[in-house]
Amino acid sequence: MNFELTSEQDMVRETFARFLEETCTPQRLRAAEASGFDAELWQGLADLGAFGLRVPEAAGGLGLGTFDALVVMDEVGRRLAGGPIAEAMLAARLIGQLGGDPAEIVGGAKVASLALHDMALRPRQFVAGGSVAELVVARRGADVVLLTVPPSARPAEPNLASDGLAEVDLAAAAATVLASGPAATAQFAAALEEWKLLQAAALAGLGAQALKMAAAYAGERKQFGQLIGQFQAISHPLADCLCDVEGARLLAWKAVREIADGSADAAVNVSLAIWAAADAAAKAASQAMQTFGGYGLTTEYDIYFYVLRARSWPLVWGEPARWLEEAGARRYGEGVVALPDVGDCPIEFDIGEEARAMIAEIDAFMTANVTPEMRAQFHYSWEGHVPELHKKMAEAGLLFLSSPELGGRGVGPYARSAARGALERHGYSNPAAGVAEMVGLMIARTGSDELKRDVLSRIISGDALASLGYSEPGAGSDVFAAQTRATPEGNGWRIDGTKMFTSGANLADYVLMLTRTNPDVPKHKGLTMFLVPLKAEGVTVQPVHTFQDERTNITFYDNVHVPDSWRLGEVDGGVRTMSAALELEHGGSFSKPMSHALHAAEALCRELTDPAGRGRLIDDPRIRARLARALANIWVGELFENRAAWAATEKKHNPGYGPMAKMHSSEKFLEDARDLLDMTAPLSLTKREGPAAMLNQCYRHAHGTRIYGGTSQVHRSMIAERVLGLPRTRG
Question: Does residue 419 contact residue 428 with C-beta atoms inside 8 Å?
Answer without folding.
Answer: no
